[in-house]
Amino acid sequence: MTKRRRQLVSSEEAVRGKVQHTKPCDDCPFARHAMRGWLGGGTVDEWLTIAHGEAKVECHTLLGAQCTGLAVYRANILKLPRDPSILRLHADRTTCFSSPDEFREHHSRKK
Known about the structure:
Order of helices and strands: EHEHH
Helix content: 10-25%
Strand order of the largest sheet: 1-2
Strand content: under 5%
C-alpha cells in the first residue's frame, strides 16, 4: 500500500519530533513536490529573504527540529550559514529547488 502524503500542515498542528529529520516534509515550501503557492503565511519574497539570510528556521511540522527543505535549498545555492548550530545538509537538486527563480516560478504559478 502506498503511503499517502499529508500536505497543508500548519505550524499549529506540529508534533514533537524525536530527532532531526533529513528529508523535507511533504509540504515543505522548498521541496519540488510542494503544492504550488503553499507558503503558510509568508510571501515568496519573504521566504527567499529568510532562505538567503542567516536565520535558524524551525520545521513547521516537527517541534524542536529545523527546516530540512531550507537546509537542502541553502546547500543547493551554496549558502553556508555562519552559525554552526544552523542545520547543514548535502545538496539535492532533485528533491529541492536549486535557485530563487525556480522557487519563485513554482510558487507564483496559478496552475
